[in-house]
């Protein structure tokens, strides 16, 4: 079958070869149709090239991601059990590699489909869980005791007979350090606050710098975290206000309602959360799932030393995708998700302290 280009050339040549007296004028409609064929062939060629480039990018991402994921899993499996210092070094290396893998995913979001993104994020969560389990397995637990915040309690209370605690009491007390379990999930060496009601809770930079921070089972509390955590986990929190310095990697929010969250991070994943406002600085894209009535606004908190904490975290202060939210429950192209919205400027809170 002759190509459109060949047909076009033949038509032109035929006109040139004819005697001037016998020249036949080709109808405009034929010329237009010939031109349309040329343009359509060019469009198909460009579309095919773009599709090929996209497939090549996705194939490269998939191969590179799986290779690095396998390397991390092998490194975890080789972690020694007897030598605490050596094991800690391996676990630190794994932590860095997981953060680098997360950054690779964030940088690839522009050409990944929702399905591919979801699979990659799930794989990273599995790696983080495996890291926490391995840390608990190979690094001996530190013995620690939670201290009551009421340090000035009456001596008569101190001399009273101790009351037996329920087996789950250690899981839900205000404190820090140690290997903490929340709802059966081992969260590794963490600091944070659990089981508090109507309290003002604060941690300074030296307490949380580059550690995993857990906030769990809080009600009507105000929390200030000054410093740069490695990750931040917020679970089962109601009617509370949480402000946090730059988080190096991810913030995970689950089972929260009626809250206000203020933090910078590399990635935000929010599950099963309602009626919550997020003042956000995020260098990738925020992800929500099974959430309703969420509001987003740009991060606007400041405190002495926050610039140094940004440097520690490695976050880009000039890159903020606070209003780029992916809702995994809303896949309708071209129609905004009804589960989140941008907080109108007049309704945004401007001061926090």
From TrEMBL:
The keyword Phosphoprotein applies. One of its GO terms (biological process) is tubulin complex assembly. GO terms for cellular component: cytosol. GO terms for molecular function: tubulin binding. PROSITE patterns: C_CAP_COFACTOR_C. Residues 149-175 are annotated as: Disordered. Residues 31-58 form a coiled coil. Residues 158-167 have a biased composition (Polar residues). It comes from the Eukaryota. Gene3D superfamilies: 2.160.20.70, Tubulin Binding Cofactor C, N-terminal domain. The keyword Ligase does not apply. Belongs to the TBCC family. Supercomplex made of cofactors A to E. Cofactors A and D function by capturing and stabilizing tubulin in a quasi-native conformation. Cofactor E binds to the cofactor D-tubulin complex; interaction with cofactor C then causes the release of tubulin polypeptides that are committed to the native state. Tubulin-folding protein; involved in the final step of the tubulin folding pathway. This is Tubulin-specific chaperone C. The lineage of its organism: Eukaryota, Metazoa, Chordata, Craniata, Vertebrata.
